[in-house]
Amino acid sequence: MHLAYPAVLAVLLFCVGIYGVLARRNAILVLISVELMLNAVNLNLVAFDVWLRDTLHTGQALTLFIIAVAAAEIGIGLAIVLLVHRNRGTADIDRLRDLREPEGPDDEPEAPAEQGHSAGRQTA
Amino acid sequence: MTTTTLAVLVPLLPFLGAVAGLLLGRRAPGFVRPLAVLPTLLATCLAGVIAFQHGESDPLKAATELTPTGNAALPVELALHIDGFAALVLLLVGVVACCVQLYSTGYLREDRRYSSYAALVSLFTSAMFLVVYSDDLIVLLVGWEIMGICSYFLVGHYWETRAARDASLKAFLVTKLGDVPFLIGILALASEMGSFRISTITARLGSSLSGFHLDNPTLIALLLLAGVAGKSALFPLHTWLPDAMAGPTPVSALIHAATMVAAGIYFVARLLPVFAASAAALTVLALMAAVTMVGSALAALAQDDIKRVLAYSTIGQLAYMAGALAVADRGAAVFHLVSHGAFKALLFLGAGVLIHAAGTNSLAAMSRMRGLAQRAPDAYWTMTIALLALAAIPPFAGFFSKEAVLGAAEHAALGDAHGVPVGAGWTVLISGLATALLTAAYAARLWLRAFHGGTQDAPDHGREPAVMTTVLWVLALPSLAFGILYGVLPDWFDGHSLTPTLITSVLATGLAGVGGIMTYATWRHTTVFAARVPLGAVAAHPERDPAVSEVEAIVSHEPAYGDRAGAPDPADPGRLLLGPLYRHAAQGFHLDAVYTALVVRPVQAAARLVRFLDRTVVDTYVRGAGLGPRLLGSAVRRAQTGNAQTYLGALLAGSLVLAVAAVLVAAGTGGA
Amino acid sequence: MTLAAAHPGFLSPTGVEIVFVLVGIATLAAAVVTVTTSKLVHAALWLVAALGGIAVEYLLLTAEFIAWVQVLIYVGSVVVLLLFGLMLTKAPIVPTVPRGHPSYGALRAEAREAADSGNRWPALAVALAAAATLVTVVVDAFRSSWIDVDRSVQGSAGVTGEVLFQHWVLPFEALSVLLLAALVGAIILSRKGGADAGEPAQGTEPGQGAGQGEQPGPTAGREEQG
Asked: Nearest Cα to B304, choosing from B554, B592, B594?
């Protein structure tokens, strides 16, 4: 089998993931897009491992690790999204703009949400 | 103790007194008065001892090198030179300074700034001693400039008033205007004559064997004359002196009548051979003296403020001395300097008493008061003596000294004086005679308007402090009798006779009498108006310092009479005598306005131009330099939207561009 | 590695290649729908399709063990977790109307607005540019490389197990510690009381707090077992 097939497929999946990360508004959809990107990388790793016939099977071992780490990531990520949703009432990424440059003295980010957020962090 | 040590102590004692007064003034107020009076008194006694030891003998000389100047032949030396001139002027300075210090203890007894005032007066006295004794031009210049700065501080003693602030600045700037050419002149003179020592310079000029001669005598003399004109208030740099009357009266007496303004005359007297080397310089000096004396006498006739009358009179008398120097007779000049110093100090101190007693400095207001002479009898009698001396009525001191000047001028006019242009002699003689008439006129006007006539009683100010009236009588003595010494003084001076000549005596005394009588007649005519037009503002503070009344009188003169100098008083005999000239004379012939138009306005315009260039042109670049980064910064701020997706998109796009660039470069190198 | 001359060209594909390409197209299509659909739950379900497609690709590449792990973990747990997340965050659900309905277009646009953020077109540009660049480079680099999938199975469970427990034991154990940490972190982060600044609020609502805390738990546990 040509190596180009899995490689090109991985590239295209990765780029679809990029689009999703950049274009989706809901944080969970962004996480889904991240999963797509990770899978593209996994596909690459497996294909090259098979192509190279590595005796240590580094690519496959790494793929397994990435799957595990991705599972941990999605767990933590979802916990954070839940927390944000609970504190701010939304999980939309483009509405979480506390770190933007204020345009004037009156344009400070809303204080109570900030306090609740930091309090939550401290307790955690 | 050798005489040299004594001579060194003379300037040193007041200096130490001033330093101690400045240091202790706040901590130990009890020491301030002794520290002010005693060093000056002691120095004056020493000066008297030196004068009697050295007045008639050979000059005392002593020198020690102070600092090298880079030219081995031209060191700056701490040099003493005491001859008859120096001893006599020194005595005058000491006596007047003592009187002023004593007078000030009464006049400014409650003043908050008395300690610094007394210290500055001591410092000033010390500087004047230095100028008189010094044989070195640079050391003399140091004393000269210290006097300038002390004058600035003392004129501005009442700095709460705008008049005093303006006057002190004006005095400082105008005298400095003359001091710049003065410094250049000193350096030019020293480099041409190869020495800073005055005695060496005069000796080298006097001897044809020395090999030194002045290449540019006129230039040097004129440069020096600029400084002299500034210090001694000769036309055209005299305008600061009338305004300087905004200072306390003792300061006017000490600085602006007896000593500092005399420094310029004394300096020319010491360096007379330099000036005599240039006929043009003598002519210029004679013309300056003539214009100054006539103009100031006319202006004095129109002033309303009693101290401004005396100030213009001072300018006129200084012009007499300058006239004597213009005809190359320094004996007459210094003779007049000393006698004038005595009676003018007396006049100013008496005027201080009078201002206190009357509560005003305006002659118009005084002329409406009855019994001022009875309120202040000491001031009345002593001022009468001093005014007679001023008007050169025999046998008072002013008569002999002025006759000495006029005699010297006549001598020169007749061509008997060697090296003096005849024209200079005639100029001085004629203007001097004319001024004698005018002087008598304004002296009579002052006397009549201050002490006679009036309908209302003068305000009661209680007794004047005894120390002030005592000082008046101390000074009245030389005003009365100093002239008798005309037979002795030539031995102290150059040896020229100071005896009055018959023709000028008769002429001048006659003119003075005419002036006095004319003024009296006019006064009799105009005094009836005084009753019809009430006028006057009186500041009565019987319990307070005399100085308090003076401050208020100075401040209130302009609002009360509409002018700083004149007053709209139809009872003024000067108004009738001067006719249409009166208005211009009251304003000092508009010289201030001319200076404003010629100097002040262009300077202010230049300052505005510089301000414009700085604010508008230079700052534009500075602001532009700031604006660029600001705009850039706000553009970058705009990118900080807080949207993580935007950041990530930009990051990926940027890394994509980098990757493409790397691929292209790799492809390019691979292809090559 | 095999020389380029030793394998047939792209114009004469083998059977495995044809299957791989077809499954790949399906996977890609599912992925595209995942990131473009305006219905959030649909996105998660299409993700299942995409991940399953990738599992098939692993099988075609003879990596059997990876394929089953993929199915178990991703399709089985991660997607379930995502669906829970979508429900817990009360993701907006657009009412479904038939295609011919008058408000169909407006609702669709509204749903798209709700799902996609404003920088959709820049994102598309970046993604397309990245795809073009990477495809160009990858094809240029590997157009002559050949994978010999017929000779031996590369990723059977036995082979993978040997390699993993002989050569990768230490990273494997370290990974288990990481997963434990992630488990603890997820529990603490999602506790209800965490939002109330340390108040004993979790005691008042034990059921909800425990339920949320447990969610990552089974997932992580299963990871460790895998």
From this structure: B554
Q: Which pTM does this prediction carry?
A: 0.67
Question: Does the structure show a pLDDT above 70 at A103?
Answer: no
For residue B138, which amino acid is it?
Answer: I
Burial class from Cβ neighbours inside 10 Å (0-12, 13-18, 19+) for residue B406 reads: buried
Question: What is the rounded CA–CA span in Å between residue B79 and residue B133?
Answer: 8
Rounded to the nearest 5 percent, the helix, strand and coil shares of chain A are: 75, 5, 20
Contact B656 C126 (CB under 8 A): yes
Judged against a pLDDT cut of 60, whether residue A119 lies above it is answered with: no
Q: First vs last Cα of chain C: how many Å apart?
A: 31
For range C134-160, the mean pLDDT: 83
The pLDDT score that the predictor gives to residue B486 is 78
The CATH class that applies to domain A4-92+112-123 reads mainly alpha
Angle in degrees, CA C157, C160, C166, rounded to 5: 130
- Give yes or no for residue B425 having a pLDDT over 90: no
User: In which element (H, E) is residue B370 found?
Assistant: strand B369-370
Contact predicate B457/B369, CB 8 Å: yes
Whether B490 shows a pLDDT value over 90: the answer reads no
- C-beta separation of C163 from C30 below 8 A: no
Q: What mean pLDDT is predicted for residues B428-450?
A: 88
Is B645 in Cβ contact with A94 (below 8 Å)? Answer: yes
pLDDT tens-digit map of B97-116: 888 888 888 888 777 888 88
pLDDT of residue B460: 66
Q: Where are the domains of chain B?
A: 594-628+644-671
**3-class DSSP state of B64:** strand
- For residue C216, give both structure tokens: 């990552």
Mutate to test the interface with B, among A21, A97, A101 (most CBs of B within 10 A): A101
In sequence order, what are the residues at sequence separation of 6 or more whose Cβ sits closer than 8 angstroms to the Cβ of residue B549?
B355, B356, B359, B461, B539, B540, B541
SS3 B233: coil
Domains of chain C, earliest start first: 4-153 (1.20.120.1200), 168-226 (no CATH)
CA distance B305 to B354: 12
The count of other CB atoms within 10 Å of the CB of residue B582 is 18
DSSP state of A109: P
Instruction: Give the three-class secondary structure for B76.
Output: strand
**Residue recorded with tokens 């600001």:** B630
Which among A47, A56, A87 has CB closest to C163? A56
Question: Which residues on chain A are in Cβ contact (under 8 Å) with C62?
Answer: 50
DSSP output for A24-43:
B-BHHHHHHHHHHHHHHHHH
For residues B235 and B292, give the distance between their C-alpha atoms in angstroms, rounded to a whole number. 5
Angle ∠(B106,B112,B115) on CA atoms, nearest 5? 70
